[in-house]
Structure formats: C-alpha cells, structure tokens
Amino acid sequence: MNDTAFGDGEKIGIEKGELAKAIKIAKGMLAKGFDLKTISELTDLSETEIEKL
User: Fold this and answer.
1) What does the pLDDT read at residue 42?
2) Angstrom distance (rounded) from CA 11 to CA 21
3) What's the rounded Cα separation, in Å, for the pair 29 and 14?
4) Side-chain half-sphere of 5: how many Cα atoms within 13 Å?
5) Which end of the chain has fewer CB within 10 Å, C or N?
6) How far is CA 2 from CA 5, 6, 7, 21, in A?
7) Residues 2-50 pLDDT 10s
8) CB of 42 closer than 8 Å to CB of 35
9) Where exactly are the structural domains of the chain?
10) How many CB atoms lie within 10 A of CB 30?
11) pLDDT number for residue 5
12) Are 43 and 26 within 8 A, CB to CB?
C-alpha cells in the first residue's frame, strides 16, 4: 500500500468520525430544545440533515 492510499483512508476515517460526533451533539441539542438554526451553526450540519435525525 502506498502512502497516498493510506492518507486517503485516514482522511475518510477522520471525516466519518467528525460527522458521527456532530450527529451525536445535534441529537443532544435537539433533546434539550435547541432550534435547528443554532444546531446547524454549531455542528456544521444542514438544517435538512438535522431534521432527519
């Protein structure tokens, strides 16, 4: 395996982890009654993505 393939795989893994964390935070914020706009601003998820949670 070359360094580029490893780097690409590592980057994808990090992105998936960041997305999972943002979703977890958004779910918690929804449970506490935060509005979609605020959640979107703080998690970088779109309001549409948040509505699907």
Assistant:
1) 98
2) 15
3) 23
4) 2
5) N
6) 6, 7, 9, 29
7) 566 677 888 999 999 999 999 999 999 999 999 999 999 999 999 999 9
8) no
9) 18-53
10) 15
11) 67
12) yes
Given this model, what pLDDT does residue 8 score?
Answer: 86
pLDDT score, position 7:
78
Residue 29 token pair: 């914020």
| Residue 6, pLDDT score | 73
| Rounded to 5°, angle at Cα 13 from 12 and 14 | 90
> Is-contact 13 40, C-beta < 8 A?
no
